[in-house]
Amino acid sequence: MLLIKKEIIGKEIRVNLDVNLIWSGNIETGITKIEDTGGFEKYSKATWEEIDYKETPDLILVKAKLKMRSTAEGGRQTGFTSGLRPNHVFEYENKRIKGTWIGDIQFEGQELIMPGEERIVTVRFLFHTPIEQYLTIGRKWWLHEGARCTGEVEIIEIKLPTTKSKLY
């Protein structure tokens, strides 16, 4: 069993295998470094059953600027409430979605975010996935509902929750 601990120290997200640092990424510059090639390879190739995340928070919080596409631009036809879980797409390959990430969009102050609207939101991502590679301030990603791109999001701030919280 591989004991993985993910943490944020200063401006770095760090991934530790047992007590050894294996990967780090600066959340401001996007510069990443594999600190231990053998350890990182074990982590990268491990299955869910082979990893113990008990030292890692369940969620990572991303404060972000969300811009929803208007209906005319191919976006949603209706607004949505806090808690929406669209597909979060950080990469495309040959104009196809390369992968999606699990996260919900949280906001306060109004009931709905409407098509074409721009808001500051918090996106809560599962931290027990290798999402750390995409988390850099200023990084943009896209929201999809099925094949349809409904919005664009830009990272403003990255932090860990102050209390134990669950996505569901």
Structure commentary:
It is elongated, with a radius of gyration of 17 Å. It is mainly beta and 168 residues long. Strand 8 and strand 9 form a beta hairpin. The protein folds into 2 domains: 51 residues, no CATH class; 101 residues, Elongation Factor Tu (Ef-tu), domain 3 (Beta Barrel), CATH 2.40.30.10. The protein has a 6-stranded antiparallel sheet with strand order 7-12-13-6-11-10, with no helix packed on it. A 5-stranded mixed sheet has the order 4-3-2-1-5, covered by helices on one side. A two-stranded antiparallel sheet has the order 8-9. 5% of the residues lie in helices and 44% in strands. It contains 1 helix and 13 strands, in the order ββββαβββββββββ.
CATH architecture descriptor of the largest domain? Beta Barrel
The residue ranges in which pLDDT falls below 50 over 5 or more consecutive positions are none
- CATH top level of the largest domain is Mainly Beta
> Shape, please?
elongated
Major sheet strand order? 7-12-13-6-11-10
- How many runs of DSSP E, i.e. beta strands? 13
What is the arithmetic mean of pLDDT?
Answer: 93
Approximately what portion of the residues adopt beta-strand conformation? 35-45%
N-to-C terminal Cα separation, in Å? Answer: 26 Å
Number of domains: 2
Q: Kindly provide the radius of gyration, computed on alpha-carbon positions and rounded to a whole number of angstroms.
A: 17 Å
At the fourth level of CATH, the homologous superfamily of the largest domain is Translation factors
- Helix segment tally: 1
Structural class estimated from helices and strands? mainly beta
CATH topology heading of the largest domain: Elongation Factor Tu (Ef-tu), domain 3
Helix percentage range: under 10%
